[in-house]
């Protein structure tokens, strides 16, 4: 199983002083599956990381601490956005093109989400069945955008990604889908 680890950087306009490092390791552990492990290191007690809520489908996760994954086929306009909260909630959005939601119903998936944490380190692992998002994703190349929103205890948000091509944080920008898998 090949995997790729990337370092997420804060957007230049973001506060992020409580996070020492944020990495993501992406792999295809089995045919048609995609796994991502986010590893956040820093002053976790200074961050708002809810750990005890019901795990379910939930909207607007990006308003608080949330790990995000954008998936597309290279050169295609359509893509999917997946959000994973530390307490196990998730959301999936389908887009026909840049920020234009698909009229089709968002795919029904239930990712496997596992959380491990200690005093200064938090790991969130999520696995999804790619064919449930799109049959085209199940095999072949993918263009991925890997990002996160981190909230501190004062309610300030910092925006983390492997690329920040815009003056304002915009994880939907295809120029931010820089990880080829």
Descriptive terms for the model:
Immunoglobulin-like; 1 helix; eight-stranded antiparallel beta sheet; five-stranded antiparallel beta sheet; mainly beta; globular; 181 residues; 13 strands
Quick recap:
2% of the residues lie in helices and 44% in strands. It is an all-beta fold and 181 residues long.
Give an account of the 3D structure.
The chain is mainly beta and 181 residues long. It has one domain: Immunoglobulin-like. Strands 2, 5, 6, 7, 8, 11, 12 and 13 form an eight-stranded antiparallel beta sheet that branches. The longest helix is centred in the last third of the chain and has 4 residues. It starts with a strand and ends with a strand.
Helix and strand topology:
Elements: E1 3-7, E2 9-10, E3 19-27, E4 33-42, E5 66-72, E6 79-84, E7 90-97, E8 100-101, E9 112-117, E10 121-129, H1 130-133, E11 143-151, E12 157-161, E13 179-180
Antiparallel strand pairs: 1-3, 2-12, 3-4, 4-10, 5-6, 5-11, 6-7, 7-8, 9-10, 11-12, 11-13
């Amino acid at each position: 199983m090949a995997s790729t680890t990337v370092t997420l950087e804060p957007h230049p306009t973001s506060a992020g002083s409580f996070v020492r490092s944020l990495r993501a390791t992406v792999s295809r552990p089995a045919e048609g599956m995609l796994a991502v492990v986010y590893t956040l290191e820093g002053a976790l007690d200074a961050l708002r990381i809810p750990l005890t809520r019901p795990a379910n489908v939930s909207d607007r996760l990006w308003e608080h601490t949330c790990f995000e994954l954008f998936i597309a086929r290279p050169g295609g306009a359509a893509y999917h956005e997946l959000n994973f909260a530390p307490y196990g909630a998730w959301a999936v959005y389908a887009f026909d093109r840049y920020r234009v939601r698909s009229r089709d119903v968002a795919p029904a998936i239930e990712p496997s989400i596992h959380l491990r944490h200690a005093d200064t380190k938090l790991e969130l692992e999520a696995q999804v069945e790619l064919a449930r998002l799109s049959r085209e994703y199940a095999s072949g190349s993918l263009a991925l955008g890997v990002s996160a929103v981190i909230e501190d205890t004062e309610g300030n948000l910092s925006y983390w990604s492997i690329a920040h091509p815009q003056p304002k944080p915009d994880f939907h920008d295809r120029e931010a889908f820089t990880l080829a898998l």
